[in-house]
Amino acid sequence: MDLGTVKEGLAAGRYASHDDFAADVRLTFTNALRYNPVGHEVHTFAGALLAYFERMYKEALANFEEECRSLEPPPRPVAVELPPPPAAEPVEAKVKPRAGNVRMRKPKAREPNKREMSLEEKNMLRIGLESLPEEKMHNVLQIVRKRNNNPEMLGDEIELDIDEMDVETQWELDRFVTNFNKALKKSQRAAMMNGGAADVTSAAVAEDDTAPVGDVPALVDNDDAVTTIGATHSFLVAASGCVNWVSC
Predict the structure, then answer these.
(1) How high is the pLDDT of residue 56?
(2) Quick one: pLDDT band at residue 205, thresholds 50, 70, 90?
(3) CA 208 to chain centre
(4) Please, how many CA atoms are within 13 Å of residue 117, restricted to the half-sphere of its CB?
């Protein structure tokens, strides 16, 4: 191997890599060192040229690798899918309790599954029933008998216990008393505005349209009487219209 052959190989493109080229150059100088004794000028020149080649080849190889790196496209950023942030726990609004008793909403007439009446609401219903005029007792009987097929409800004297009534009957009686009181207050305001001294209770009875209507018959005859059980008193309402108080 000699440098002329190496030059021809470079021109012809026979070297597949720079390592193959460097191997032939080294072979040329190592042959000169092997076949010429130490001290011979060929041996001396071959050693110096081999050292020079190694230094130049190292620098050229470093420059070549740097140029190759500069020509490479920059690496694409890798999309990293981050996990979604943890869902924030709902913060329950702290409702400051109001002072005193909280009044619950009364169920509407067509509302299904009505709630039970509280003890206070039952007491208010008892007071409201006791304050009704005699003319309205037949409406109370109609409401109670509408959902009660007990034969005792058809007797000469009927005992009404609010605690034993079903929820629907309790709330219907409550609506009846409430509507009557509204009509009574309306009549009172009208009487005050007119400056008259009319019987506002009679006017409220005439104006109140909350009595059961339709196919519900009037179930009160001259022998019917109603006893309403209260917390401390009961009262007996007869068909004659009188009210007799009876201690419990």
Answers:
(1) 93
(2) low
(3) 44
(4) 22
207 vs 161, more confident: 161
Residue 141 tokens read as: 């009987």
pLDDT of residue 74: 73
**What are 48's two structure tokens?**
């110096």
In CATH, what is the architecture of 116-188?
Up-down Bundle (1.20)
Instruction: Yes or no: say if 158 and 152 are a contact pair by the CB < 8 Å rule.
Output: yes
Sequence ranges of the domains in the chain: 3-71, 116-188
Strand 158-160 and strand 225-229: the pairing is parallel
Q: How far apart are CA 210 and CA 221, in angstroms?
A: 21
Does the pLDDT value for residue 48 go beyond 90?
A: yes
Nearest-angstrom CA–CA distance, 191 and 185: 10
CA distance 169 to 166: 6
> Where residue 244 falls among pLDDT bands split at 50, 70, 90?
very low
| Contact residues for 48 (Cβ-Cβ < 8 A; gap 6+) | none
Which tokens go with 44? 């001396």
Q: Which residue has the tokens 């304050």?
A: 131
Q: Which two tokens stand for residue 192?
A: 């005050």
What is the assigned CATH class of domain 3-71? mainly alpha
DSSP letter for each residue of 153-207: GGSSSEEE-GGGS-HHHHHHHHHHHHHHHHHHHHHHHHHHHHT----HHHHHHHH
Matching residue, tokens 């003319």: 135
- Look at the pTM and tell me if it is higher than 0.70: no
| Predicted local confidence at residue 36, as pLDDT | 92
182/169 Cα distance (integer angstroms)? 20
